[in-house]
Design goal:
By secondary structure, this protein is mostly helical. It is built from five helices and no strands. It has helices spanning 15-33, 40-57, 65-78, 104-112, 121-150. The chain is globular, with a radius of gyration of 18 Å. The chain starts with 14 loop residues before the first helix and ends with a helix. Mean pLDDT is 78; it is low at 1-9. This is Transcription factor IBH1. Keywords: Transcription, Transcription regulation.
């Protein structure tokens, strides 16, 4: 892979990449214009949320479960004045015999892909492929911005 286009299967001039860059730059501008400058950790969190939101908004289809789940999670965290509640995860242990056709790796994917917990195996693989492609585009965008701002 060359340095110019680290994504062999994606076009950096595609509408999705352009929309992701547009959404991310607009969010960065909003963060920069904020009157009270937040602490470093809060600013880092805001930038990370902006990156995830721009990635989810620019997803090629709003039907993707991962993008809807990611946006829902970000909206839940942004609600002002909500009380912090500590939730305990209730882990239901299913016997290994109940899903013999699915490898343990599928369970790992379900935990990594936003919204992947209730998906069937084939849908999970499609969502994972789309999510990874968007993550790669996000990394490429960040590298491009870093190169532009550092020179």
């Amino acid at each position: 892979m060359n340095r110019k286009n680290p994504l062999p299967n994606s076009n950096p001039n595609s509408p999705n990449s352009s929309m992701q860059a547009l959404h991310f730059l607009q969010a960065l501008a909003r963060i920069a214009r904020a009157a009270p400058k937040p602490a470093h950790s809060a600013r880092t969190r805001q930038i990370r949320h902006a990156a995830y939101a721009s990635m989810a908004h620019s997803s090629r289809s709003s039907r993707r479960t991962w993008s809807r789940a990611l946006l829902h999670r970000l909206r839940q965290r942004q609600r002002p004045g909500r009380l912090l509640t500590v939730r305990r995860r209730v882990r239901i242990v299913t016997p290994i015999m109940s899903r013999p056709e699915e490898p343990a790796r599928a369970e790992t994917l379900r935990q990594l892909v936003p919204g992947g917990r209730g998906m069937e195996y084939c849908n999970l693989l499609e969502e994972t492929a789309d999510y990874v492609q968007c993550l790669r585009a996000q990394v490429q965008l960040m590298q491009t911005l870093l190169d532009a701002f550092s020179s």
